[in-house]
Amino acid sequence: MRKLPSRKTRRKLTKSERAERAAGWLFVSPVLIILGIFLVAPIFMALWVSVSDWAGRGSPFSSNVSFIGAQNFKQVLVDGGLSTRNFGTALRNNIYYVILVVPIQTFVALVLAVFVSNRALKARSFFRLAFYFPSITSSVAITVLWLFLFSVSGAVNQVLGWFSLNGPNWFNDPRGLLHLLLGVFGVHTPPAALTSGTFLGITYWDWLAGPSIAWSAFILMAVFTTSGTFMLLFIAALQQINGEVQEAAMMDGANSFQRFRFVTVPMLKPTIFTVVTLGLIGTWQVFDQIYASGDPGAPARTTLTPAYLSYESAFISNRWGEGAAISFILFAIIVLMAAIQRWALRDKDEAKLRRRIRKQKRVEARATKKGAN
pTM, whole model, 2 decimals? Predict the structure, then answer.
């Protein structure tokens, strides 16, 4: 049986551990101080602004600034005025953005990673650089280029003109793609049930509009600029897959698609989880592309996002409390979405194993306690 150290020895070990912990805190203290000053403190200041009537002049902690509770949040979420309608419109736009961008960019990044990881492909380095290059290019520059391509005289309109599909105002059409598709089948008048009720200031019919043509162009731009970054993550994960697993699947008669579906994709699950998490966070924080578009929100606020609406409310309209409230609502949405996708992509077998281990430990602890008594 292992002999326990004496009290004197235990006291020396405790002092040594305390010294190590003190040294560790000493080394990380500069970073903690910097993060506290430039990250944590501004967050708490913004939280105070969201529950106060600060007008943007002077210090938000001065005596003439009073606490108003959840009034700013109520104005955005409940009152049904212009602020609520703007937030509802921005939220609707961003939801369609997330629903379309995250799965498409994840799929495209995975396909590109498999493509450039093929050993039979020549000039693999060139293709990796070509696919990754849009991710390191300035988002403002790409936005300007994208707007030029989709302008009335742009290349996209010229190509569509060959098929008689172009028009001078198609990019300025505020209708959503779903409404346009229904119009093709002769549905131009919404049902009364979808126009009688509202949520966040806009009707259910408008919630089901889908992204506008202009917003669809921004969605394509997001996929174009972000797929290269996630491609690198998938390439690194593919390089960690043991080739013997693929060979075993081939020996069992699995074709290339079956190996990809039943071998490669399950082994990439941790990387898929990371890519989806980063995609959710990034798609809910769209700002610079909207700001650089020249006419943010046009047409008819169909390209407005909560991130830009927070900036517009605070820095343009001087409604600082409302802008801070929108930012914290956006933060809550991001945390909630990350938690949902973490639950959806969890490893069920691993979760069952962990529950069994915890249950076994509880049983052993009870048995040990009974034996001691």
Answer: 0.85
Centre a 10 Å sphere on the Cβ of residue 216 and count the other Cβ atoms it contains: 19
Q: Mapping DSSP to helix (H, G, I), strand (E, B) and coil, where does residue 260 land?
A: helix
pLDDT tens for each residue of the chain, 373 residues long? 445 555 544 455 577 788 888 898 999 999 999 999 999 999 999 999 999 999 888 888 888 889 999 999 999 999 888 899 999 999 999 999 999 999 999 999 999 998 888 877 888 888 888 999 988 888 889 998 888 888 777 788 777 777 666 555 677 888 899 998 888 888 888 888 888 888 998 999 999 999 998 899 999 999 999 999 999 999 999 888 877 777 787 887 878 788 888 888 888 888 998 999 999 999 999 999 999 887 888 888 999 999 999 999 999 999 999 999 999 999 999 999 888 888 877 766 566 666 777 777 777 777 777 776 6
What tokens appear for 101 in the block?
Answer: 């961008």
CA dihedral (15, 16, 21, 25) positive or negative: positive
Check the CA dihedral 258-263-269-275 and report its sign: negative
